Amino acid sequence: MSEEAPVGRVVGTEDSTPLQFSVALAPEQYLQLDDVVVTVRPVPGIGPVMTSGVVTEVRARHEGATFGSDVFLIADGVLPAQVQEIAEITTTRVEPECYVPPTPGSLAQRATGEERARALYFDQMDLKVPVGLGRDGEPIYVNLEFLDGTRGGHVSISGISGVATKTSFALFLLYSIFRSGVLGRRSVNAKALVFSVKGEDLLFLDQPNNRLDDDLRAAYAKLDLPATPFASAGFFAPPTPDDLSGRPHVTGRTSGVTAFWWTLAEFCAEELLPYVFADAEDERNQYTMVIHQVAARLRREATAVGDGAIAVGGRVLRTYDDLVEFVSDRLTDEDERRDWAGPVTGTGTINAFLRRLRSSLKPLRTIVRGDLTDAAGRRVSTDGHQVTVVDLHNLPERAQRFVVGVVLASETARKEAAGPGGLLFTMIDELNKYAPREGSSPIKEVLLDIAERGRSLGIILIGAQQTASEVERRIVSNSSVKVVGRLDPAEAGRPEYGFLPASQRQRATLAKPGTMFVSQPEIPVPLAVEFPFPAWATRLSESAGSPAASTNGAVRRDPFARLPAVPDDEDDVPF
Predict the structure, then answer these.
(1) Could you tell me the pTM of the whole model?
(2) Could you give the CA distance from residue 508 to residue 406 in angstroms, rounded to a whole number?
(3) What is the span of the domain harbouring residue 479?
(4) Whether residues 152 and 105 fall in one domain
């Protein structure tokens, strides 16, 4: 053990086991939740055995008091009693691996330096990704091997909207992976694809935050990270509705954003029709057969003309409305119906298909086009930038699902064709919308494929959701790293959070913004971390280059503090 002063001794009035023990604190000493503690006992034939653990509960009481009112007598000096604090320690590591209980009376002390690193297995991590600071003010790490697919992959982040800072933590994790140097040469081929539904907050990742001050720089320096914005970022947004110029539908950022859409020719050639029906549906529904029949027929018969328009059945179609009307005409014509719908020709089934197809007109007419002049680079792609942000906040929910499904399917196919090499971190907020626990849909199947074999392709999913209990179980269970912010009390009791000790489940209902509980396979106990305020702008007013951002001098503040939520953003406003 180090020369650190002992904080107390292992208690003899409570059972001590190899997996959990208690420490009575000495006078003028204290332990707080999440402190790392170490104690040593000699074992014949083996030598000293060091047991390390994390404080998961602390309680104080008067020894010598019998009744609740005795506290007043003790305070007045009438009744003799002594304050005693007991800290409960959950074991994280035993070295050497001789699982014997710490003996009562053994000295216990805070683990610092190398002892802390051993207790939390940081000494066994060849590649460490800093994810924030612990309660003791020292860095907390995640093993890159559980993030890059080597031994595991995928990250699940859960917490209440607007309070849990899920998006903020996911971005900080990406920043740490890219800027900490752990990727080495692989950083050249490492990419991130971020789907944003939180307003235009993520369109400024490449711009410095005007709130950057010496305290914030020091916080990043403690994690061996530079306090700078993302070095390479590209941005996509849907085109402005009813505007034939094809300019992106954004207001805060006037340059550096590319409009994306799919032409009618691509829609037909790539059989994208199933993604129009991206709601989770019972796959036993008959109309799902019609979807694939119609998609295949469009692929065979549609011919590209002009800037993405198509000619089919003797008609030229230039808008998504034209396409929907054409399909409706074919399916309502008794002579054409069998050719287009296949063997499923029941009126009820056809009507169910058409009803859902027509309901997609308003959501999708902006992003499926044949009336815009084709533009280079309009297809969402991760080429040319390390981080690619796809802004979806101006699209209806159904269109958001279409975009996520089509882009993910495209990127998965591209990675599969390219073979091993390179990493693609895919960050999706509100994952429960795309992969709900019940039902089936094309996008859910894509996400399941990524969760179950994505790490072998180099695709790592970073999913954020308010409630992990509403996300497909196989996606959550395949996530090696699980992160929890502020939780609703009812949600905290669900079995999906069984990895949290009882005390941490309760604490998660009280956690402040910026505090997360991080669970990873090597460490038996989730670790509480605080991650610093972003060094990149999270809205136009924070951009160091914007007129509204000019300030005379920085305000000294807590670098881990969070700003109040923006009132008009109902979802997870991270800062």
Answers:
(1) 0.90
(2) 35
(3) 134-245+253-260+379-549
(4) no
